[in-house]
Hints:
The complex is a heterodimer of chains A (426) and B (159).
Chain A: H1 10-19, E1 24-26, H2 34-46, E2 53-56, H3 59-62, H4 66-74, H5 84-96, E3 106-109, H6 116-124, E4 129-132, H7 146-165, E5 171-174, H8 186-202, E6 207-213, H9 218-235, E7 240-246, H10 256-272, E8 277-279, H11 292-316, H12 328-343, H13 347-357, E9 375-378, E10 384-388, H14 406-425
Parallel strand pairs in A: 1-8, 2-3, 3-4, 4-5, 5-6, 6-7, 7-8
Antiparallel strand pairs in A: 9-10
Helix pairs in contact in A: 2-5, 2-11, 5-6, 6-7, 8-9, 8-12, 9-12, 10-11, 10-14, 12-13
Chain B: E1 23-27, H1 36-47, E2 51-54, H2 61-71, E3 75-80, H3 85-97, E4 107-111, H4 124-130, E5 134-137, H5 143-150
Parallel strand pairs in B: 1-2, 1-3, 3-4, 4-5
Helix pairs in contact in B: 2-3
Amino acid sequence: xxxxxxxxxxxxxxxxxxxxxxxxxxxxxxxxxxxxxxxxxxxxxxxxxxxxxxxxxxxxxxxxxxxxxxxxxxxxxxxxxxxxxxxxxxxxxxxxxxxxxxxxxxxxxxxxxxxxxxxxxxxxxxxxxxxxxxxxxxxxxxxxxxxxxxxxxxxxxxxxxxxxxxxxxxxxxxxxxxxxxxxxxxxxxxxxxxxxxxxxxxxxxxxxxxxxxxxxxxxxxxxxxxxxxxxxxxxxxxxxxxxxxxxxxxxxxxxxxxxxxxxxxxxxxxxxxxxxxxxxxxxxxxxxxxxxxxxxxxxxxxxxxxxxxxxxxxxxxxxxxxxxxxxxxxxxxxxxxxxxxxxxxxxxxxxxxxxxxxxxxxxxxxxxxxxxxxxxxxxxxxxxxxxxxxxxxxxxxxxxxxxxxxxxxxxxxxxxxxxxxxxxxx
Amino acid sequence: xxxxxxxxxxxxxxxxxxxxxxxxxxxxxxxxxxxxxxxxxxxxxxxxxxxxxxxxxxxxxxxxxxxxxxxxxxxxxxxxxxxxxxxxxxxxxxxxxxxxxxxxxxxxxxxxxxxxxxxxxxxxxxxxxxxxxxxxxxxxxxxxxxxxxxxxxxxxxxx
Lengths: 426, 159
């Protein structure tokens, strides 16, 4: 790649849009048929607003079963995403002809605990941006031992770092701020996002993004993103980074208006916290997979609302500094990050040891390498709070896992959907 | 910090705990990576006095069979919500029933077992004849399952 490639990267594009006051909006989109994938990407590219493209891979590719993916393609069966390894670089380059460019970068999304084949295929296809992490794509979505995932992700990161060294504009996003998607108190989400970023930085990557998934309390979400930004400043020297927000990942409101209101709140969260990118959902998400047109509508609406919010925020002076710097989320996340880094100077070893000892413990996560002693609860004012801190080294410990009932869990899982449905029903 | 509200945990002082709790294994089909249904089923069983080994998301069928052979539980619960439960579920019960040592074992399956919505009920009969003791469709709610775990039993189909 030539030196001008440095300007064509995913991170560089997001930075350019941010300095012009625009939030980059991005769908979750993936089709198995190459023509349909191309059609989807072009529709997102044409959409009004600053958009980035997404190629979401299928579940066979996610678990490394490329022969099965190939067989489905041969028999013209539909997969639930784009099988980038099975297609091979030539077919993907052809699919992308005239699609990817400096002002329309594309991210490959995969959910894999071992993305080595995926990253190799992605780089050979001329794509340089992806996401995930050794913790965030192992514990919530696979049964792979964490020790294996950490090695696989180290080698994957090194593969990308090599490409970066030869001039490719590599970008990597940590999924650590999402984990199971819901019911994880933000202190732990922020800590894992920062720790996975430290992992990527250690293995040579210098252009990163840190994720955060919208949770149950707008005030707590803003506090969390402020904490995430401050900790990224403190722990990621020499890294160019931005923050990406995910629209609520749990059960969506069943009414169209409720779903729209929840989506709009995620746009406000992104804009008001100075976050640079948003992974958008659509209002039909609760009932089915959205069409290309519905995705484009949601992207355009979100981009437009983000601009409005920014204008209002500028006028009102409603910005990040209204959230106290020493917030509960900041204090918790910092305590966890420091406790993990103290375990070992090697971040790979430190992450493994942290989960083994329960210094990091994802609530409700059933993966064999997660202790699963911690529990969370939604307070009456909507904030996510620890019900049981397990063995995590937090200043305020709590041990009431037994107080959680099946009905209580169900209520927590339905909390957001009900709140937004009820609000619009009034 | 504010106290947990109605949306969250409720103290459960009415939990029934027998001297020797019945033991259940909870699992799902290999293709299903959903976790919340498994967490929920564990809480339900524990509240009714069961002790639970939850095998988590995406367990290989062999792993489920191995655990049943080693632990000889009183009940195996397969919960699946990804729409492929009727396929993986049939493979699983076939492998499990090939071990005569597990003839005694009540095995139930439930959740969102197909992608046909209300018509998912077409999967009930094939799953029962493949060897499940009971099949619980999403729409039925929890009632039928709760009645079953009061007296779990291996049901033989007649005819």
